[in-house]
């Protein structure tokens, strides 16, 4: 078995046994290619009462390479209004999903990072280039060269 | 005849021509900086002191001694081998100075981006700190590779029990973040093979910036990948150096060294020519663009990318409303235009108010009416900036195209010359004047092309007129020479044609030098004023 399968199997067992981080739930994890989660923010935040869908897709050399993670735009889900989330395709501009990915990170820590990204948001606002990016974005956010210019939200 | 790239042969030809035609071309390479004896006495103020200290590993004895024209810069091409050697020299120097292993010296130098002075300064201050930062760190009590029992790797989630003998092979850098060796191997191979990383392969721990050193990589990855890693590592020497740049020509593996600092790029155009023959700008990597400086070239290329097609279309298909200046496209046959915005009714043909047209619908024969010509004047004014841009852009683009056409023409002519050489007493050398002419022509057209970019951004003053005079003279000379190349070639007329072409070639070259030299002087004196800020 390759590292990816071994590791994802173990991650899945842990997620099933101990449950994913509070506020998130597994929607789909039938194979080791694509998992889906629902995610909401705990406590007081601009997103109180809202639930979003996240889609993870794992490359063959996961965890050496980061997974592709987007907010779902299907199955009745809509991406959150957030300065780092593109409204048309759910792409997320988050450094740990790009150049700051480390193999030590995992699905659980990504879920936590995204929760905290939402929790710390101060203003419901689309990214400045939302419309333009929506028109020209590649299929996978991993093919976008994001500039991670603001780590505060 | 076919192998024009044979430098030595080519030199011989030039020598022969010097003697027998007395035109005395400069060798082509002199223009690019490193010819033999530059024969011109004027404008030879060497600008060597402009380029700071030339302390580098290449032993610069052979560069920087030629006297250059004021628009030329020193540069030198380096092969991969000479780059490797230069690195070795630097490494040995540092290793012997600090009395450390050369592999460690290499890591330190790479960590400091080959800035030896800074490394020495910092190292003298606190060697331990520098070593730790750069990942040169050996702690015998905590070896890098270690077989451990009771260890679980945070990455693959495997633990010692899963390994044969109940012990897991693990690896940690100076930072102490320990993972299993298999994961490290996968990780490094992914970085090297897939991402082309070399000196920035870091510890796997998130936010740990410690770079994995050459030795550790060698212990972990397959030999084939280690070779690849070393190749990549050698390349970073050029990437990290501010005085080196890879030649951007396809398939060229040479790097060019040039000591013009980034700060000078608004005044100096560092045109270099790689030994492979590709002329380019050391400052921005674009094709050589003298006399325009990098910042305006960048503005211009951006503008052309964004605007030229749109501007052409607007110019060809629209007119401005004579009253409110909205841009209007005529999309039907009728000349009776009603502006959507201000409701002004006017005639597409004469631009005059429609009310004066009476019953002559669908045609207009009243061009000379005053109201019409006034309206056209207003239109012309609002169109001026667009037209101004197109004026420069069209000339810019035209020279590019003409240079290509000149080359095509030469290709056809060359064949003919070859035939004539076979059927007449003309020697190969005697038919070479066209090659020289076309090369010069191409070079001059490229220079001219960029004068239009520069002219577009020059604020209008007396100096611009001087600039435009030089530009005009060069353009005239270029077109005259170009015209000669189109003359039909007959056997009897060859000596005559050769005479004319050779004379014009020399003249064109002279004009180019004047153009370049004057703009360079202008930059030195701060004579040029721009209509943009950069």
Which key phrases capture this entry?
heterodimer, A: 153 residues, alpha+beta, Ubiquitin Conjugating Enzyme, four-stranded antiparallel sheet, 3 helices, globular, B: 534 residues, mainly alpha, Herpes Virus-1, three-stranded antiparallel sheet, 50% helix, UBC-like protein (chain A)
Written account of the structure:
- Chain A: This is UBC-like protein.
- Chain A: It comes from Violaceomyces palustris.
- The complex is a heterodimer of chains A (153) and B (534).
- Chain A contains three helices and four strands, in the order αββββαα.
- Chain A is α+β, with helices and mostly antiparallel strands.
- Chain A has one domain (3-142): Ubiquitin Conjugating Enzyme.
- The radius of gyration of chain A is 15 Å and the shape is globular.
- In chain B, 50% of the residues lie in helices and 7% in strands.
- Chain B is built from 14 helices and twelve strands.
- Chain B has helices spanning 7-21, 28-31, 80-98, 102-111, 116-125, 127-134, 181-194, 214-220, 223-240, 294-317, 370-423, 433-457, 462-486, 494-525; strands at residues 76-78, 145-148, 168-172, 178-180, 244-246, 255-257, 271-273, 279-281, 318-320, 327-329, 336-338, 345-347.
- In chain B, the strands form five sheets. Chain B has a three-stranded antiparallel sheet. In chain B, strands 2-3-4 form a three-stranded antiparallel sheet. A two-stranded antiparallel sheet of chain B has the order 7-8.
- In chain B, helix 5 (116-125) packs across helix 6, helix 12 (433-457) packs antiparallel against helix 13 and helix 13 packs antiparallel against helix 14.
- Chain B starts with 6 loop residues before the first helix and ends in a 9-residue tail after the last helix.
- Chain A binds chain B through residues 3, 6-7, 10-11, 61, 63-65, 96, 100-105, and chain B through 154-158, 179, 182-183, 186-187, 190-191, 194, 204-208.
